[in-house]
Amino acid sequence: MAALDRSQAPATYQDVLDAPPHRVAEVLAGTLYTQPRPAMRHARANSVLGMEIGDPFDRGRNGPGGWWIVDEPELHLGRDIVVPDLAGWRRETMPEYPDTAYCEIAPDWVCEVLSPSTRRIDQNEKRTLYAREGVSHLWFVDPLAKTLEVFQRHDGHWLLIGTLADDVSVSQPPFEAISFPLAALWPEGA
Question: Using alpha carbons only, how large is the chain's radius of gyration in Å?
Fold first, then answer.
């Protein structure tokens, strides 16, 4: 992940807009970070998780509905601009779906799919930002280790609810109304 020299002026949204189109750009604590599009294993885990959760929670198919589930939304949270792999808003939190390029309402749930190049930022700076902004649930999916870590915000800090591995059934907050096999997130035979 590339970052600007911290001695420069704080990065702005214009820096995000000026980033090369083949890179994901974020601003954290005034620093512009860019990284290439995710690798295929990362993209697969992200896509399948979005389908597993999206149908029952966003679309209400075989589930309770009541959520907006979005792949890679651009979030403007204070001066920070982040692009989580997946995010979800209860419809009470965001009654109207925005018709803008970005959203300024903090999600209720965020999932980061960890990559070697983004792991440190996801697990440190972004985790702190999500707690500060009131995100209630945070998931870390690790396609290389084939694990899922589930966190819930408690008194402004993250509490690890569980770490799942192998082919366990996933039924975790805030999506405990459904279950799906964790192994569905990994390519068969990988």
Answer: 16
